Amino acid sequence: MKTYLCASACTAVFVAMALSAVAVAQQQRAVVNQDAPMFLLPDAHREPILMLERGVVIQVIRVEGAWTNIRVEGSRLGDRYGYIETRFLQQPGGAASSSGPSPTPAPSAKSATPTTSTQSPTPSSKGSNNGATTAPASSVASTPVVQPSPPPLQPTPAAVADSAAPIASTTTLSNNAPPRPNPALALNRRSIPLTKGTSVTITVPSALLQYDGYFIRGGTRIVAANISAADDGVAVNDSAEWKLAGLPALVDVSFEKVSKKKNYTEVELRGPIAVVKLRFDGSVRSVESALGEVAIPGNHRSDGVDQYLGEVYDMLSPTFFGGNLAALSTDRKRAILSAVQSAPGGDVRLYKGQPYAYFDLGTDGSVYNDLRFNQVSLIANVLNEQLFTRMRGLSRYFSGVPELPGVTVTYQIRHKSFLEKYAPESIYYLEIYGPMDQMQKFAAADITNQQFLDASVVLVDGNRVQIPLSASGN
Q1: How far apart are CA 426 and CA 143, in angstroms?
Q2: Contact 203, 8 (CB under 8 A)
Q3: Do 340 and 287 lie in a common domain?
């Protein structure tokens, strides 16, 4: 299946985009205002990974409209990451995102029962800042710990830029999505010896590699995932469906060391792009065998990775190619996923139940002065000065996949008040959802930048905004 070598060859760049910067952002705490489920991804039709009791205090990573990416502290394996509906959160002592009872003293999170929520997400509230739409009270100007979110990994001209989390969709899956395939792959299930220098390729999706700090020497980003035993293989971050979380990260690393902790065994693997820490809990009988479930021997150019991509593309196809797209041939579906994954920060994400080509352009290297820009003028300035040019450069990736209905571009913009010497930085999280036909006209200069923007959905910190480009003042 040499068709997929394009995606593999671009892995270093892709993975670098899969971990964009949130470390610079100041996280905020919020309180769960009533018992609520926490999901691995922003999809209420999945099985919850935790049930959060009313009064639990959590860390907000990023508000994504009706959903909020959060971190729950103090679980058995350390911090837990996932999504909760924004309406179930309020700031400590502040107003809730939607009506709900006042919190009681914070109890602990408890394991979820295998039930499926049927609640629909609701829009988040809006505020104002110099006339501009801003994030709701529970929002934090940050991106998920890759991503941020995990973090997605983002390259700069000279090196790797700040990372973010994890990556994750900003919308729920369609109610009419086809049945999910069995997430277990028969490929390459063999033990990987814990021998120093052993080279492997991490196949965990970028969205599930959570930011875990910096490796001091060289400032390489550290990402981590929790591994536990499941009926058919392993679960990643408590999800047995982890392979359905997105395209695999394909991080090239080599085994460095293994450490025995109180509740888990930590395997550290190091590479030029990231340091990966995999934490295997007590349910895992053989760490070597479990490592073979989430990694493939050799680097991303190996035949094993090439074969894996073919199988994982087939497994993801029912999620992304529903409706009329289901009639596409298997080879065409694979080619679409391969073409998008070959782009820096490339992925396929669902937007309103439809598959969009997704490009995370990372984090702006500058920190902008709040005394000079309000939200709207800053977004307009960044679009005019750099983003439009970069977005046109993506056309070689999305022009070959006209079947997809649209393109999503995300970007993080750092800002702070320069009036205060030690004022913390914040981040505007920008999302642009452009229809494919308008994206192609924009790339070909058949319409103006403003016409393209007006035809798209633009969100800042989860709130829809209008951006007049003339507001940049340039």
Answers
A1: 10
A2: no
A3: no
Number of domains forming the structure of the chain: 3
Q: Give the residue among 85, 78, 83, 90 at the shortest CA–CA distance from 28.
A: 90
- Under 8 Å between Cβ of 428 and 413: yes
Asked whether residue 315 is assigned to any structural domain, the reply reads no
Contact criterion met (CB below 8 Å) for 144 and 168: yes
Comparing CA positions, the residue from 312, 195, 291 lying closest to residue 249 is 312
In this structure, the chain runs to a length of 474
Q: Does one domain contain both 339 and 208?
A: no
State how far the Cα of 262 lies from the Cα of 271, in Å rounded to an integer. Answer: 26
Selection from 141, 243, 144, 120 nearest residue 188 by Cα = 243
Highest mean pLDDT: which of 37-41, 73-77, 177-181, 375-379? 375-379
What's the CA gap between 37 and 35, in Å, rounded? Answer: 7
Q: What is the CATH number of the domain that holds 109?
A: 2.30.30
168 and 115 in a common domain: no
CB 121 within 8 A of CB 85: yes
Q: What is the mean pLDDT of residues 333-354?
A: 86
CA-based angle 33:464:143, to the nearest 5? Answer: 65
Task: Looking at the structure, tell me whether residues 67 and 127 fall in a common domain.
Answer: yes
- The whole domain housing 418 covers 331-472
pLDDT of residue 159: 29
Query: Is residue 295 assigned to a domain?
Result: yes
Same domain as 235, residue 164:
yes
Which of these three, 134, 157, 172, is where a domain ends? 134
- Tokens matching residue 93: 């002592």
Q: Are 452 and 183 in contact (CB under 8 A)?
A: no
Q: Contact 37/50 with Cβ under 8 angstroms?
A: yes
323 occurs within a structural domain: no
d(CA 81, CA 226): 10
- Predicted model pTM: 0.57
Distance CA 392, CA 442 (A): 7
Q: Are residues 238 and 202 in the same domain?
A: yes
Is residue 321 a part of any domain in this protein? no
DSSP 442: H
Burial 300-322 (b: 16+ CB within 10 A, else e): bebebbbbbbbebbebbbbbbbb
What distance lies between CA 54 and its chain's CA centroid?
26
**Cβ count within 10 A of residue 452:** 20
Pairing verdict, β 274-281 and 220-230: parallel
**374-393 pLDDT, tens digit each:** 999 999 999 999 999 999 99
Distance CA 236, CA 199 (A): 21
Cα–Cα distance measured from residue 182 to residue 170, given in angstroms and rounded to the nearest whole number: 24
Residue 444 and residue 338 share a domain: yes
Same domain for 110 and 154, yes or no, is: no
Distance, CA of 461 to CA of 330 (rounded, Å):
37
